[in-house]
# Entry
Amino acid sequence: MTPEQAAATARPGLAGLVGAFAESPRTLRRARLLGLSGWAYHVSARAGALGDVKPETAAAAIGFIAPEAVTDGWEAAAKTTEPHEVATWHLHELCRWGVEELGEFARLGRLLTLSRRVVDAADAAGLPLFAAWRAMPVPDTSPGAQTAVALHLLHEHRLSVQGVAVRASGLTPLQAIIAGPEGETGAVAFGWQPPYPAAGPIVRRLMWAESVADALAGQAYAELDLAERIELIGLLESSQQALAR
# Structure
């Protein structure tokens, strides 16, 4: 398993673990306690790590959500709560979730060690949102919390390099969504309005972008040797299975 293959194989597992946190009832309850819609919470929690920036800056850093949709969510959140405060609360909730949901995982210590090494090895140049999240102080030092944050950072790193690779391929974020597995459904979910481009002519470009993203993300996985990369992938799969039980 090469570093690029490790990055590609880790991607669905990371998305599943981070998605389990994002969709948990207590995480969604936090949005209501802050007086925010789900969309305003999502946007401000994701990009709030950047601090007090313009919505255009937040949209550029997120990349794949329509700029108008980011602006709507960002400005709605800012009426009641500073976006950075939302991101800070989001981080607290992530730590809580990690303690409750990952704390009993049998090989938690090893998952934390390997994932943290990859996070620390990642080059943040050109990846402002990943850099901002990695710089945020983690409020809980327990293994479950630290592991949840490390997995979140690995996922954020992949999303960030995906954006770089898509732009390098000549695709726009909307074209990349349309050419992907969710197509127009994904475009609607990310706030893009029709008319949409045809998918057929751009699928090959997206495949190239995916391979570039694997290579970029794989640079961090090169921190691990072959056995450790295989071990990390297995731990990601096992921890996801444990959550599903």
Q: What stands out?
A: The mean pLDDT is 94. The longest helix spans residues 143-168. The two ends are 28 Å apart (CA to CA).
